[in-house]
Design a protein that fits this description.
102 residues, mainly alpha, 63% helix, 0% strand, elongated
Amino acid sequence: IGPGKGYITTKMGPRMTKKGKELGKPSRRKGTLGKRVKLVRDTIKEVVGFAPYEKRIMELLKTGVAKDNKKALKLAKARLGTHRRGLLKREDMENVLRHRKK
């Protein structure tokens, strides 16, 4: 029992990509959006359009009133289940409206 206990091993270095960049631990990378998945999702969103609840959220956000902004969050929360998902969806819809104005 003590710090020198057990079979002595050498620490393995970080895994590297072909370009020499360090790959993070799989547990840290899990859930990050890859290039291919992003492209597929964007293409589908472009072809299919927005869901009715997303259109309603955008209508509420277009008014620019703080009360409607809160209503948009409540609607997103109700449809998606959690506060965090609602916040992200509202932010996403705001970005869509911002890009449409340009």
